[in-house]
Amino acid sequence: MSDHASDFVLQAISFDTLEGWKDDDPSGLFEVMRSCRRQITDVKPYRTGSLGLSSEDLLPLLADAEDFTPSSPASARAFFETHCRPFLIRRKDGNSGFVTAFYEPDIDVSARPDEIFRFPFYRRPDDLIDLDDANRPSELDKAYAFGRLHEGRVTAYPDRCAIDQGFLEGRGLEIAWAKSKVDVFFVHVQGAARLRYEDGRIGRITYAAKAGHAFSAIGKLLIDRGEIDRAEISMQAIRAWLARNPERVDEVLWHNRSYIFFRDAPVADSQAGPIAAAKVPLLAGRSLAVDRMIHTFGYPFFIRAESLTHLDQGRPFRRLMLALDTGSAIVGPARGDIFTGSGDMAGEGAGTVRNDADFTILIPNAAAGRFD
Fold first, then answer.
1. Gap between the Cα atoms of 160 and 250, Å rounded
2. CB count in 10 Å sphere of residue 124
3. What is the reported pLDDT for 327?
4. Rounded Cα distance, 188 and 215, in Å
5. Are strands 84-91 and 8-12 parallel, antiparallel or unpaired?
6. CB-based burial, 221-252: b 16+ in 10 Å, e otherwise
7. Is residue 5 pLDDT above 80, yes or no?
8. Which helix (DSSP H) or strand (DSSP E) does residue 100 occupy?
9. Three-state secondary-structure class, residue 136
């Protein structure tokens, strides 16, 4: 276990003591696991997080899932019980894990700008480069994964304020234009969107890169300023405040210097979820964004959030999920973002999720012995 993983331990537990496990139905995960296997074997393995679990460690589980069709919820659970061992992620500071949620917004857009559709979604610029320890300038924090290469010199890329004020205009990078700067901002936060064009066409965009600056939550800013009570904070509350204070929208949005670039991401099945960082379609209610510096995509996590009840008709949230995405705000060993689906209803469900949660990772048997 590397230094990145030194602030937590894995505690071996049993499925019998995993509260809520016996009531879950993970049958829907098998199709997604097959997609993950194809990505790993036919395209490229997922990057190994600092926990040390690799795509190679995962492949035996995915291979066994290839031809398995659960006949019941119990048979689906039995598959994981046979092939995996559960480990509770325990933070050394004693704090519990924490979940939020994200969704794929539906946004009305135009292929051309006019007086109504004025706010663009941008593709990745050609002067944005990936940074690593070899090419990152000493004055840039190690958290910068992207920078600007201009006339042979690497610097920080212009931030949200500079881009909103026109830094990228005239370079032909626009994918489409939306009506609302606030809508564009929240698509940046979500990392994907369905675009509904005026002619009825539906497009999809997903995360391609970011300018490189750290994510700064505008909800925290509004709490710190006393504008929204901490107990009331949600995406809906933030949107309502911005609607009431149009003259302060730029100032608040520019507080989050992080800026996201997108790519077209067509999905053959319009009912399937968006394709996110793991390069497979997300399954609503079963896909989890994790800290990819620690964890590796494709691994199953059982999430138990007793206080999160509105996603399961009043019952506590207790579900097996697959790690299929990541995000700037998803930092830590027991920090996750639940994908609730696409469209406005999914957004209503996602916007108020801020709950303590237990994270249990299911490790394939052969690799599990390394963690005893």
1. 10
2. 16
3. 85
4. 11
5. antiparallel
6. bbbeeebbeeeebbbebbbebbeeeeeebeeb
7. no
8. strand 97-104
9. coil
Max CA pair span of the chain: 62
Q: What is the pLDDT of residues 323-334, one digit of tens each?
A: 999 987 899 999
Nearest to 362 by CA among 298, 304, 319, 299: 299
Q: Looking at this protein, which amino acid is placed at residue 291?
A: D
Structure token pair of residue 48: 């190994």
**How many CA atoms within 13 Å lie on the side-chain side of 194?**
21
* CA angle in degrees (0–180, nearest 5) for 113-118-121: 90
String of b and e for 1-21 (b: at least 16 CB within 10 Å)?
eeeebeebebeeeebeebebb
Give the other-Cβ count within 10 Å of 367's Cβ: 19
The pLDDT of residue 2 is 38
Q: Determine the average pLDDT of the residues in 112-139.
A: 96
256: its two tokens:
């989050």
* 12: enclosing H helix or E strand: strand 8-12
> In this structure, what token pair is assigned to residue 162?
């500079």
Q: Are strands 106-110 and 119-122 parallel, antiparallel or unpaired?
A: unpaired
